[in-house]
Amino acid sequence: MRIPETEERMLAIHIACLNNRLEIVKLFFENRVPPNVLNNKIDKATPLHYSILSRNPELVKYILRKKGDPNFRDVQGNTPYHFACMIGNLEIIQLLEEYKGDALCKNNSGASPLDIIVKSKNKEIMGYFMGIKKYANELI
């Protein structure tokens, strides 16, 4: 199913993700809405980006299992991983890591998700990343 991009308005699936409506999101996927459909030409975010803002790990995991791309970049170069680090949700960060998200990728401003966590001084999440070999040296 091809979903046309809109100029400014949000697509219904993105609204459902933002509002934490898992049952509605499931209906969209059952009707073959692509998991990485862009919201609009302005922000170019996917349902996964918006699901992270809902702070519901169950919704995030559902979209990841449906092949939502944890490394898809919006117009500012932010990935869902950037969003998860901005809101400081460890459970969602762990899901993104499990589904091959990249905490070292840089957005258009040159910040990685890891940079966001260091700047936030979130000790719990920094501790999580210290336990992952590929990130530990980045935090020293």
Topology of this protein?
Elements: H1 12-18, H2 22-30, H3 47-53, H4 57-65, H5 80-87, H6 90-98, H7 113-120, H8 123-130, H9 133-136
Helix pairs in contact: 1-3, 3-4, 3-5, 4-6, 5-6, 5-7
Radius of gyration over all CA atoms, rounded = 15 Å
What's the N-to-C terminus distance?
Answer: 47 Å
The CATH homologous superfamily is named Ankyrin repeat-containing domain
Sequence stretches where pLDDT stays below 50 over 5 or more residues = 1-7
Strand content: under 5%
Give a short summary of the structure.
This protein is mostly helical. The chain has helices spanning about 10-20, 20-30, 45-55, 55-65, 80-85, 90-100, 115-120, 125-130, 135.
